[in-house]
């Protein structure tokens, strides 16, 4: 064999072996940046949540690039870049924009839009391209029952919304045994109820009432009257803001007094207290994140988790800078920002941007950030992040659970409606 022929064969063999070693074509040449693609809901039905997510993502990208120093991959620090389009909260736009991000913009990862419906709509597109698809705003467990391989969740699943509430009551009041479940007849709320029922039974609570009410309900009197007759110690329920407000108001009208009341997607909103004033005192609700939580590097060490910044105050400052507005971020921003941090850690763990490798690394990650814990199961569903429970006390929202995040103790039992009518407020336990 001629020497020149041997050299050619050697080069071909070396290149073939290199490709078999697992490096993607994108990594054969040094990357100048890592590109995040996002079909963001910046107008339409989910515009408010979409804007918050945008600010959260930009804030954490800013922190990664300018404080953390970039993403360490293949021996060098590489900056993150962000390409996004407005899907206008429309399902048909989500599919086309995700396709464009992957095939035209050549992004390294796709961030899903806000909401379970839009997230689920985009999943098959990302899956068909074997593209990592990160979910910051789709809580419905149904997304993770489809067999998708490339989707990973940051927001907590709907089935876990009331787990923390149940854990808290179990700990502070062993005598409370009887729970009533009353949720809106929507896919999301029913998933919350399914999870609450399962966890309540696991903890030894007795389900004395379980019923749903229709969307757009204007009178809950028949349901609440039946609920009152079941004599629960506490109530879990809700669905959206309007029905949650009605639920609380008509409980007062019927003088239904329980030790605790927790309503999803209503009680955490400032408008809830503005509408009900003193009648909202003592009412609780689960939230994915609230400004004021105590998650920190110190708390991470206590529970044996690694930590990645920014701190809560740094995040808030970077969020305001990203949007150019003097507003406090809500959980939509926090979960989207935490997703950036998870992606960065996974890239560094995998030493790659290859979707399969990063997805495998995400499955092994366990850490804490300003958003709280992070861990996913084999389907990609989030299992490491706990909801925080907030309660209205003296006109202010107080984080009462979990203990490592609380800004104050729970007021328990909550005042009766007759007491609240006379001006009594919820006072925390000593």
Description:
It contains 15 helices and 17 strands. Strand 16 and strand 17 form a beta hairpin. The chain is α/β, with parallel strands linked by helices and 430 residues long. The strands form five sheets. It has a five-stranded parallel beta sheet, sandwiched between helices. Strands 9-8-10-11 form a four-stranded parallel beta sheet, with helices on both faces. The chain has a three-stranded antiparallel beta sheet with strand order 12-16-17. 40% of the residues lie in helices and 18% in strands. Helix 13 (331-350) crosses helix 14 (355-362). It folds into two domains: 29-156 and 292-374, Response regulator (Rossmann fold, 3-Layer(aba) Sandwich); 160-287 and 387-421, Rossmann fold. It has helices at residues 3-20, 25-28, 47-66, 91-103, 116-128, 163-172, 187-202, 221-229, 241-253, 270-276, 297-302, 312-323, 331-350, 355-362, 417-421, and strands spanning 34-40, 71-73, 76-78, 80-86, 109-111, 133-135, 151-153, 178-184, 206-213, 234-238, 260-264, 284-287, 306-307, 367-369, 372-374, 388-393, 396-401.
List keywords for this structure.
single chain, alpha/beta, Rossmann fold, 430 residues, five-stranded parallel sheet, 15 helices, four-stranded parallel sheet
How are the SSEs ordered, and which strands pair?
Blueprint: H1 3-20, H2 25-28, E1 34-40, H3 47-66, E2 71-73, E3 76-78, E4 80-86, H4 91-103, E5 109-111, H5 116-128, E6 133-135, E7 151-153, H6 163-172, E8 178-184, H7 187-202, E9 206-213, H8 221-229, E10 234-238, H9 241-253, E11 260-264, H10 270-276, E12 284-287, H11 297-302, E13 306-307, H12 312-323, H13 331-350, H14 355-362, E14 367-369, E15 372-374, E16 388-393, E17 396-401, H15 417-421
Parallel strand pairs: 1-4, 1-5, 5-6, 6-7, 8-9, 8-10, 10-11, 13-14
Antiparallel strand pairs: 2-3, 12-16, 14-15, 16-17
């Amino acid at each position: 064999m001629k020497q020149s022929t041997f050299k050619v064969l050697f080069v071909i063999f070396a290149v073939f072996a290199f490709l078999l070693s697992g490096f993607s074509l994108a990594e054969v040449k040094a990357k100048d940046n890592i590109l995040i693609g996002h079909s963001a809901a910046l107008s339409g039905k989910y515009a408010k949540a979409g804007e918050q997510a945008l600010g959260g993502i930009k804030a954490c990208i800013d922190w990664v690039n300018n404080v953390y120093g970039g993403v360490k991959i293949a021996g060098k620090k590489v900056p993150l870049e962000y390409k996004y389009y407005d899907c206008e909260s429309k399902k048909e736009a989500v599919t086309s924009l995700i396709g464009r991000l992957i095939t035209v913009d050549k992004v390294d990862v796709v961030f899903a839009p806000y909401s379970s419906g839009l997230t689920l709509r985009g999943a098959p597109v990302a899956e068909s391209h074997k593209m990592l698809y990160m979910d910051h705003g789709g809580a419905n467990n149904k997304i993770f029952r489809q067999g998708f391989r490339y989707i990973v969740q940051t927001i907590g699943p709907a089935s876990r919304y009331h787990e923390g509430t149940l854990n808290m009551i179990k700990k502070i009041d062993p005598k409370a045994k009887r729970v009533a479940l009353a949720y809106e007849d929507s896919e999301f709320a029913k998933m919350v109820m399914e999870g609450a029922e399962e966890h309540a039974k696991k903890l030894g609570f007795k389900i004395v009432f379980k019923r749903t009410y229709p969307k757009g309900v204007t009178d809950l009197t028949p349901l609440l009257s039946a609920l009152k007759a079941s004599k629960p110690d506490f109530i879990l329920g809700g669905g959206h803001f309007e029905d949650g407000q009605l639920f609380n108001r008509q409980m007062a009208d019927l003088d239904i007094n329980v030790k605790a009341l927790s309503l999803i997607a209503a009680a955490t909103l400032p408008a809830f207290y503005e509408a009900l004033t003193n009648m909202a005192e003592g009412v609780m609700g689960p939230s994915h994140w609230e400004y004021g939580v105590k998650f920190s590097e110190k708390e991470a060490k206590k529970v044996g988790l690694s930590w990645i910044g920014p701190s809560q105050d740094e995040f808030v400052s970077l969020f305001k800078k990203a949007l150019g507005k003097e507003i406090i971020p809500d959980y939509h921003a926090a979960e989207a920002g935490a997703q950036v941090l998870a992606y960065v850690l996974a890239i560094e763990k995998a030493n790659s941007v290859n979707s399969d490798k990063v997805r495998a690394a995400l499955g092994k990650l366990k850490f804490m950030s300003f958003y709280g814990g992070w861990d996913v199961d084999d389907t990609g569903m989030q299992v490491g992040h706990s909801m925080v429970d907030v309660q209205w006390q003296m006109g202010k929202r107080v984080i009462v659970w979990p203990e490592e995040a609380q800004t104050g103790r729970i007021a328990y039992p909550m005042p009766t409606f007759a007491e609240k009518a006379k001006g009594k407020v919820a006072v925390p336990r000593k």
